[in-house]
Amino acid sequence: MRNDNDIYNDIGKILFSISPDGAKKVILQAEFVPEGDVCTFLYDYVDADNNTKWFDNDSAQASSDLMDYLIELREFTIVNNLTNGNSIWIGCIVTVDIEKAKINIDFKYEPFIEE
User: Fold this and answer.
1) Is the pLDDT of residue 34 over 90?
2) The pLDDT of residue 115
3) In which band, very low, low, confident or very high, does the pLDDT at 37 lie, cut at 50, 70 and 90?
4) Which residue segment(s) compose the domain that 29 sits in?
5) What is d(CA 17, CA 62) in angstroms, rounded to the nearest whole number?
6) How many domains does the chain contain in total?
7) Is 90 a domain residue?
8) The domain spanning residue 65 has which CATH number?
9) Residue at 33 is within a domain
10) Is position 114 within any domain?
11) Among 35, 59, 70, 33, which residue's Cα sits nearest to residue 43?
């Protein structure tokens, strides 16, 4: 099994590759459905003027790969007993700072994306 840093790097690479021109940051909100086999994705970016804007990811392959990596990250969390006896996270907010080449993932344990 790969380590979590490898998974984070792969997620960051995908988000960087689909980021709109001029984006300083890319933000992915991802939430699994209760069955855990489908994920809702919302994409935003921060432009040069620090405005946050929504964008549409037209790459089905990127979405599929992101889903695979998030499932892998959840499995890593479970296998390595990183839940501290709590439920596994159901979603996350991933922020890729393109200028600093840094990634941050904020895990969510309750539904947070409104339909």
Assistant:
1) no
2) 64
3) confident
4) 4-108
5) 9
6) 1
7) yes
8) 3.30.500.20
9) yes
10) no
11) 59
